[in-house]
Automatic annotation (TrEMBL):
InterPro entries cross-referenced by the UniProt entry: Bact_solute-bd_prot1
Protein name: Extracellular solute-binding protein
Source taxonomy: Bacteria, Bacillati, Bacillota, Bacilli, Bacillales
Lineage top rank: taxon: Bacteria
Signal peptide coordinates: 1-25
Region (Disordered): 28-70
Keywords: Signal
Residues spanning the membrane: none
Keyword presence, Signal: yes
Ranges of biased composition (kind: Low complexity): 33-51
Keyword presence, Signal: yes
Length: 579
């Protein structure tokens, strides 16, 4: 046992050296704020019981109130795009007040950092052993905590305290999310995401630029290449200068904004290993022998890299993309310098959300990805399996409190939906209050269902069948159609021809690719993944920029196999979790 723990904490130390911050589709490329620690609580749920004669009343099921109230500690990441009304913060807002008044739970944030710094800060916390009562961790950290035996077995707690709505969310889609959270028959975490496919890429193109260069939306990858070149060479903004680029790209390579997933998918390639990701959220395809093979080393990837190299050489990609982040690539686009990008469903909300209003004559169209041949392109999604989990410390006095909190959040956002806990608009600023809770869940197809409902309501001019959330989206779409350009993003999300219309086409036509491996990170992924990822980033970036020939790809594949790749493949294929 001692040797096992030494090995586990050696992995934690390795994380401190190698781990970098994850660029989630949620952060939209924004830079975070500086770290800010909150004062240490005087009493927490993980502390020794207070010397008191008062008997504590604990809820005997999914709902109820603690009496006397308890304190539960956690840690938080701060997204730079999340806005707070005056007086609100992660420490004090409508949710924290509701938790105290309704549940008798005071949530204490032991520390808060930007989402760009969260993964590193969590690694430090794990190494110190000073865990909060519950916390959000990535899949790699989840595995390490399980191996270190420092988080609670939630099997019985889930059965007793998770509400029917919470269980429905976690167990939807065949129970894949719950299966991923279960280790050796024990539920060790609460999946924070997964089950969805809305991260699949669409293609965003400046429609005014298309008109200016005399081209139509793409039907093939050759069309995509031609549009990128025309946007580079044919003065699409009509300013008489050679100052535009065809395809947006930045150092992240794979991302919800300016990522390359959709481009690769056009060549039937499915690589995924974000520059600042965990290096353990990987795609696997099934080979002719029936075994799993890593998607990133397949010959189709080489073909797509060759096309990107040609585009870079032609000047269609920003020459310094390798040193800019998502914020900078977003600024290039919004400053009228780039006319095409691949990205996830949220791209209309950032960074291009205000261009229709701020850049006269500009507009963006949303299109499905296209294929290089007569075989339909499959849009890849890594959203099926959870990438993050809420876990509860073994030392937590009230491990059930995480579920009591989660049940309340799920009820307000999905059960008895309350718009006041979701989004509040003051003037022209919208406050996403649904981002404030310290714990949350998802229903994978909620956005898709809302889009179809809104489209039907707009078509029939009848919003009577919409729920409160859907009615809000409907009102925004109507405002846009009546001339309110500030509602452009809502129109691109919910209307016919928008993002969810494109995603719906993928889903209905079975055009979404998901990895054949459904398990959690293997030991070699955890131990060697970061170094293998960094080498992949250097290789792909160098090939695109012409620093290496396209044939160097084959040499890199051999290096990957010899540096741990073979072990990863053996572990994956021995897991029994290949679909």
């Amino acid at each position: 046992m001692a040797a096992k723990k030494v090995k586990v904490w050696a992995l934690v130390t390795l994380m401190l050296i190698l781990v970098t911050v994850t660029a989630c589709s949620n952060n939209k490329g924004n830079e975070g704020s500086k770290a800010s620690d909150s004062p240490s609580p005087s009493k927490s749920a993980s502390a020794s019981p207070a010397e008191s004669e008062t008997k504590e009343t604990v809820p005997d099921g999914p709902t109820g109130k603690y009496d006397p109230p308890i304190e539960v500690s956690t840690v938080r990441s701060i997204n730079a795009g999340v806005k707070f009304q005056e007086g609100d913060s992660l420490d004090s807002n409508i949710w924290t007040k509701d938790f105290e008044s309704t549940l008798g739970i005071k949530v204490i944030n032991k520390w808060k950092v930007s989402d760009q710094q969260y993964q590193n800060k969590m690694a430090v916390t794990m190494a110190s052993g000073d865990l909060p009562d519950f916390m959000l961790v990535d899949a790699q950290q989840f595995q390490i905590l399980v191996q270190a035996d420092t988080i609670a077995d939630l099997t019985d707690t889930y059965a007793k305290y998770a509400s029917d709505l919470t269980k429905k969310s976690i167990e939807e889609g065949g129970g894949l999310r719950l299966k991923a959270s279960t280790v050796n028959g024990k539920i060790m975490g609460i999946p924070a995401d997964g089950g969805g496919r809305d991260d699949a890429h669409s293609l965003y193109i400046r429609t005014d630029w298309l008109k200016n260069v005399g081209l139509e939306p793409p039907k093939t990858m050759d069309d995509v290449i031609n549009i990128a070149l025309a946007f580079t060479k044919n003065d699409p903004d009509k300013n008489g200068k050679n100052d535009t680029y065809g395809l947006s790209l930045d150092m992240n390579l794979f991302n919800g904004w300016s990522g390359l997933e959709g481009f690769f998918n056009g060549y039937h390639a499915y690589p995924f290993n974000p520059t600042k990701g965990t290096a353990t959220n990987l795609n696997f395809v099934k080979g002719s022998d029936g075994k799993a093979a890593w998607a990133d080393v397949q010959p189709e990837v080489k073909t797509a890299l060759g096309k990107l190299q040609e585009l870079f050489k032609a000047g269609a990609i920003y020459p310094e993309f390798s040193v800019i982040d998502g914020v900078k690539s977003g600024e290039l686009v919004t400053s009228n310098k780039v006319g095409m990008a691949y990205g996830a469903f949220w791209v209309p909300t950032w960074p291009i959300n205000n261009m229709k209003k701020d850049v006269p004559g500009s507009d963006w169209g949303v299109y499905p990805i296209v294929s290089a041949d007569d075989k339909p392109a499959m849009a890849q999604s890594t959203g099926g399996l959870p990438s993050k989990y809420y876990v509860v410390s073994k030392k937590a006095k009230n491990p059930e409190a995480a579920f009591i909190l989660l049940n309340r959040v799920m009820d307000k956002l999905y059960g008895n939906f309350d718009i006041n806990y979701h989004t509040v608009t003051a003037g022209d600023v919208s406050y996403g209050l649904h981002m404030y809770p310290p714990i949350g869940g998802v229903f994978a197809e909620k956005n898709q269902e809302a889009a179809y409902a809104v489209q039907e309501a707009v078509k029939n001019n009848d919003a009577s069948k919409l729920n409160e959330e859907q009615k809000q989206y409907y009102d925004q779409v109507v405002k846009y159609k009546e001339g309110d350009l500030s509602m452009w993003a809502s129109d691109k999300l919910w209307s016919t021809g928008g993002v969810f219309e494109v995603l719906g086409q993928y889903k209905k036509n079975n055009r979404i690719f998901q990895s054949v491996y459904t398990g959690n990170p293997t030991p070699t992924m955890v131990a060697k993944g970061p170094s293998l990822r960094d080498e992949q980033v250097r290789t792909f970036t160098s090939i695109i920029m012409g620093g290496q020939s396209i044939d160097y790809f084959d040499e890199w594949v051999t290096k990957w196999m010899d540096s741990g790749g073979k072990d990863i493949l053996e572990e994956v294929n021995a897991s029994g979790q290949i679909q």
